[in-house]
Amino acid sequence: MTRQKPFVAVVDDDTSVNRAIRRLLRSMGVAADRFRTGDELLETMRSIPSYRPGCVILDVQMPGTNGLEIQQRLVAFGAPVIFTTSHEGVIERDKALAAGAIAYIRRPFDDELFIKAVRAAFASARK
């Protein structure tokens, strides 16, 4: 699973949302892997040390561990995080951004805003 070019891990339990985000990423020329839960992503990152996405796109509300908790655990891996969510929580948004999220984007979102956030995440990962 090691790659030359940066890639994204998309974590969302909604298959149609996950598919739409990956399609948009492909249109930018960015590869993306799909995960239904944050725990699944963390397990992959722990078991394959070379697996390091240039960015992780997280939903806030998922079965099992929620997106904010996954974000905290991703700090150890240095992965920039972008949240996409249909959840209207100001508290969650503030927590995500305070913990270092690149962006907190409400769905449905503007494609250009999303693309800018992904580019910003890749730029922050290179620093």
* Average pLDDT metric: 90
Output the radius of gyration.
13 Å
Indicate the CATH class: Alpha Beta
Structural class: alpha/beta
The biggest beta sheet, please? 5 strands, parallel
Number of helical segments? Answer: 5
CATH architecture: 3-Layer(aba) Sandwich
- SSE arrangement, N to C: EHEHEHEHEH
Strand arrangement within the widest β-sheet reads 2-1-3-4-5
Shape annotation = globular
Number of strands: 5
Kindly report the name of the CATH homologous superfamily: Response regulator
CATH topology: Rossmann fold
As a percent range, the share of helical residues equals: 40-55%
Termini gap: 23 Å
Modified residues (4-aspartylphosphate): 59
Protein name: Response regulator
Organism: Paraburkholderia bengalensis
Domain Response regulatory: 7-122
Short description:
The protein has 127 residues and is of the alpha/beta class. Helices cover 44% and strands 18% of the residues.
Summary keywords:
44% helix; 127 residues; single chain; globular; Rossmann fold; alpha/beta
Summarize the structure in words.
The protein has 127 residues and is α/β, with parallel strands linked by helices. The chain has a single domain (7-126), classed as 3-Layer(aba) Sandwich (Rossmann fold). Helix content is 44%, strand content 18%. It has a 5-stranded parallel sheet with strand order 2-1-3-4-5, with helices on both faces. Helix 4 (90-98) links the parallel strand 4 and strand 5. The longest helix is centred in the last third of the chain and has 16 residues, at 111-126. The radius of gyration is 13 Å and the shape is globular.
